[in-house]
Amino acid sequence: MAPIAVGDVIPDGTIFFFDENDQLQTVSVHSLAAGKKVILFGVPGAFTPTCSMKHVPGFIEKAEELKSKGVDEIICFSVNDPFVMKAWGKTYPENKHVKFVADGSGEYTHLLGLELDLKDKGLGVRSRRFALLIDNLKVTVANVESGGEFTVSSADDIIKSL
Fold first, then answer.
1. Of these residues, 15, 33, 43, 51, which one is catalytic?
2. Residue 1: inside a domain, yes or no?
3. What predicted TM-score, i.e. pTM, was given to this entire model?
């Protein structure tokens, strides 16, 4: 499957997260993104070094600036279960705007065409590192990394395109 690209409408699919009342929510991606400007950024794994120390903190630190530029939602996405994503999100007490969502079985990652095979590292099939800017379900920016790199998908890279 070809990776999601600029001009594509994001596929609909189901993702999972814990809301502010600690209740597990099962929602469609379209319900989160329809009529909104959304950043969906994906990471290969919760609690992994680059994801935890660089990628996620950048979006948390730049959240106010992103919102001031018209972004409605900032969503951190990973092939992990929702309990792991909830626990990982809680390690960032300063976070006020980034929603941590789970694609436990990797089905939505497959729909995006952004799978990354990390079986040789004991991680299974995960998501490539990426950052998408989505405007009313249409991809306007698609910054997708090669392998385990972190060169084009940061919050600063998205800010440059706003």
1. 51
2. no
3. 0.95
